[in-house]
Structures are given as C-alpha cells and as structure tokens.
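User: Sequence recovery, please. Input:
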C-alpha cells in the first residue's frame, strides 16, 4: 500500500462487452474433461478472471507505448505504468489505481474439445504418447466487464482510459493461451464511459450506487501506438480435397470429419504454422544454414520461448461440398 495514500478526486468507469473473434482458451489448471480445461465459475459457465485482462493490458502498454516505460512526472521513482498498475517495490510500493472486474458470460458460449499432436521434425510422424486434447470457447461468446480508474489528473485519466478502449476495439489485444496460433482475439462490442467528480455530492451518490453518469466531452488519447511487427494477408484456394481431422463421439457419424468451429469449416492455426515451420526447416537444411534450428526457434518459439509469428485461424467462408470417402485397410502381406 502506498505510504501517501489519499482519496482520488475523479473516478472513471468503462463498462463494456467483449466478444471473442477467435477461439479462446483461458485454462484453470483442471484436467477433469480434457488435458486442459477452460476456467469455469461456480455455475459451470466459462469466465475470464479480471487479473488475466489486467496482465495482458499491462504488458500491451509496456510493449507498445514508450511513455509508460518512462518515469511518472508526479513520482520519479515509479514508471508511468507502475503508477497506474501498482508496484511491489519494497521501498516505494504503491497500490493499483485500476480495478478490473471478472469478465462474466453475457450469452450462451459453445465449448469445443480439440485434439493436438506433436510431430517429430526428424521423422515427420507423430511423437510417441504426444496426443493431447483441450477445451476452447468457440468464437462469438460475449463477456461483460468493468474497468474503474481513479486519480486527480482528469485529462491524463481520460487519455489513459481512451487508450484501453481504442486498443480493445482495434483488435490489438489477445488473451489466454495459444495466442500465436490465432487464439484469444477479442473485440469491444459495446462500451460506455461514466465520469464522476467526487467533489460533487451528486456524483458521489451515483458512484456509490454504481449508477451510470455518462461522460460528455472529448477523451482524446495522449500517446501514440508503436509496433515493430508487420502483417501479411493471403488468399488461398483449395485445389483438391482437404481434411483436418476431428473425431466425433457420435457413433452414427463418420469415423473422422473436417474440423469446424461455430458451424464453419476452419483450418486451425496449428496446422498452418506447423506446415510453414516444416517448410522453413527444409529450406534451412537444403541451404545448409549452420544455425537454422536456432533461427527456427527464434521465429516460431519452443518450450522455453514465445513465438514471434502469430497465425490466425482460417475460416473457410465459401460454401463447400462435404463428401464422405470410404476407405478400407489392406493387409500388406496378404493383399486382402
């Protein structure tokens, strides 16, 4: 807790609904249904802890806004980021100015179980005992949330909250696990901003009763978003047949079918990223690049480092024909 704690003059509350625009995996460490279950509340409904959103936004601001890595003008012993999100420094620790609610489900969420495998790069086949499954929340789930911030500098607070609001709206925030495979993209569907001046008796009553007090005016952002990443988009055509296998528990269904999400045929980011990495490795080996494996790990990550490449899941938008193919197993010795 800050040594010089005092009451804030202003309070700003951002209310909104976040919609996941790609599959979402926020794990709770459980493995009752799969190897990695999603986090659920006491009623069994998926939710996202406020701490998860806070951590993601803190990292986002640190990475993309140099001003937040600089010292706070009001307290040179803290960075601007620490002054908002708090600091655990034993000599000059301070509590966070921001309160994040948990993100609770606002509609019906569809949970899907997906399979994963690990491919041995040398043999090109599945590694032994390397199959696993996990739960994901399919795209289209909506979560209600609240972010409250307090302070004495009205313009600075409004500028800060506008950054959070704009960047969530702008598809710049990803949350949860497997984000390099296209998971965790979120968008702000609806939002409202309430402003309270705690020197005004009416505002105090509204704030204590959690009543809306719509902000009237401009809340222009003060800092510029910076990124050293780039984006490439491609249009591909399926020349022949394609299947990324998904196995059903329905005995009447086919033994395996192409994977779908929210009723649409998809190509998972895992499949695309795996194919691109395998081709990159083949190129490095052909060119006899000495540190090829290090370059691959630097780009695509490994068990100890994050991937620098993020590949979105592909939704096959066109109407496609789903056909059933009959297959039989041939005994290689008898030919029967």
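Assistant: Recovered sequence (336 residues):
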């Amino acid at each position: 807790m800050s040594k010089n704690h005092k009451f804030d003059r202003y309070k700003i509350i951002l209310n909104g609904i976040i919609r996941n625009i790609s599959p979402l995996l926020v794990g709770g460490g459980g493995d009752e249904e799969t190897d990695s279950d999603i986090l659920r509340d006491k009623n069994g409904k998926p939710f996202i802890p406020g701490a998860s959103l806070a951590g993601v936004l803190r990292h986002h601001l640190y990475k993309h806004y140099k001003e937040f890595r600089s010292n706070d003008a009001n307290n040179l012993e803290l960075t601007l980021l620490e002054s908002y999100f708090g600091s655990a420094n034993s000599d000059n620790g301070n509590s966070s100015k921001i309160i994040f609610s948990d993100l609770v489900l606002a509609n019906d969420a569809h949970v899907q179980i997906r399979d994963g495998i690990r491919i041995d790069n040398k043999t090109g086949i599945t590694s032994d005992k390397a199959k696993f499954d996990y739960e994901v929340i399919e795209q289209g789930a909506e979560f209600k949330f609240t972010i409250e911030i307090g302070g004495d500098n009205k313009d600075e607070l409004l500028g800060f909250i506008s950054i959070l609001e704009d960047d969530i709206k702008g598809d710049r925030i990803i949350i949860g696990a497997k984000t390099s495979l296209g998971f965790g993209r979120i968008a702000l569907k609806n939002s409202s901003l309430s402003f309270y001046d705690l020197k005004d008796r009416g505002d105090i009553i509204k704030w204590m009763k959690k009543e809306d007090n719509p902000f009237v005016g401009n809340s222009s952002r003060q800092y510029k978003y910076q990124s050293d990443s780039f984006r490439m988009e491609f249009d591909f055509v399926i020349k022949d047949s394609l299947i990324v296998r998904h196995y059903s528990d329905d005995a009447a269904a086919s033994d395996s079918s192409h994977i779908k999400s929210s009723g649409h045929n998809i190509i998972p980011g895992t499949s695309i990223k795996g194919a691109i990495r395998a081709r990159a490795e083949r190129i490095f080996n052909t060119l006899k690049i000495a540190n090829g494996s290090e370059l691959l790990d630097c780009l695509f990550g490994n068990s100890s480092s994050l991937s620098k490449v993020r590949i979105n899941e592909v939704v096959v938008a066109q109407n496609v024909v789903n056909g059933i193919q009959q297959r039989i197993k041939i005994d290689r010795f008898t030919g029967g």
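Helices lie at 50-64, 80-85, 154-169, 201-208, 269-286, 292-300.
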